[in-house]
Write a structure and sequence with these properties.
single chain, alpha/beta, Immunoglobulin-like, Rossmann fold, 3 domains, six-stranded mixed β-sheet
Length: about 350
Amino acid sequence: MIYFPFSFTHFKKILTRLGFASILLCILAATAPTASAQEPDEVVRVDTTLVQLNVGVVDPQGRAITDLSRNDFAVYEDGVRQSINRFEPTQTPFSLVLLLDLSGSTLNFRPTLKQAALRFIDALVSDDRVAVISFNTKIETLTSFTSDRRKIFNAISIAEGKGNTELYKALMASLQQLKKETNRRKAIIVLSDGLDTEMRNLDRASASNAQTDQQAIASIKPEASASLTAVLDAADRQGVTIYPLALPSGDPKRLPIPDPKITAIYTSARARMQSLADRTGGRLSAINHLEDLGRLYAEVAADLRTLYSLAYQPNGSHTRGWRNIRIEVSRPELIARTRLGYFAR
C-alpha cells in the first residue's frame, strides 16, 4: 500500500495541475527497485544438474566386462576428478525408444524392418521399458513406455506410413518422452537413412554452386546444424545414449547418380548420424545388407546389457563451453567408452 501525506482534496488539485499520467510515473518511480538490487547483465548461469554417463568397458580383445563396482571407476572433467553421486550396474533396466523411419524410402523393405525390430524386443530383459515411435511427415507414438511385450509387438506390427523424413523432430520428441522416465538408464535406437527432409533442403542450397564432389562436401558443415545441436544438447542433459542404425538407402557410396550436390547431401547426413553416436556414447551401425538388420539389432541389445551408468555433480570450471570427460577403470588393461563430453551453458 502507498501512503500519501496529504488530504484527498489536495490530491485532486495535484491531479488537475500535473495530470494523471505524471502522477502514475511518479508512483512507478517510487516503487521500482533500485539499480543495485537488479541482477547484473553479465552473470554466468551454470547448469548444476547431474552429468549422467552410460559407460561400456571391454578388455583388449573387445569382450565386455560387466562385474565392476563404483570403486572401479574414476571420472575426470577437464582433468579434474569428480565424485560419483550415483552408480548403476549393468543389470539395471533401461527405458528405450525404438524410433522407426516410416518415410517413403523404407516402403520396399517394411516387412524386413518390422521383423528385425521384433527380434530386438525379444533380446531385451523383462524390466526394460520400451516406447515405439514412428516418423515420416508426422511423428506418431505407437505405444508409450511399457514392459508389456504384447503391446510393443502390436505397435511394431501396425507401423505403416510414407512421406518425408522428419528425423530430428522425431529425435526431439523421443527425448521429450524420455524425460518422464526418472531414475532409469535411457537410450534411443533409431532406424533411418538419416536423410532428414529439412536438412536435405538446407544442404542442397549450401552446395548449389559446387562443381565437384569435393567442393560440394566442403560447402556443407554438418556439425553446424541447429537441429542436430538441439538434439545433442538435450541428450547430454538426460544422459541418453543414441544408437543409429543407418539404412543402405542413405549410403553415399551407393548413389545411382554421381551428382556433386547429391553426394554432399548424403555424406553430410551420414556424418550427422555418426555425431549422434559419438557424442552420446553410442555406436553407428551401417546396414550394408538388409538381412543384417536383425543381427545388428541383436548386437545393440547386447551392448546395452554391458553399460554401466554413472552420474556426478561437476566441481571444476564454472565457465561456459565444451567440457571433456574421461573415464578410468582400476584395471589399466581395460578400455572404457562413453561420450566425449558436453557443452556447459
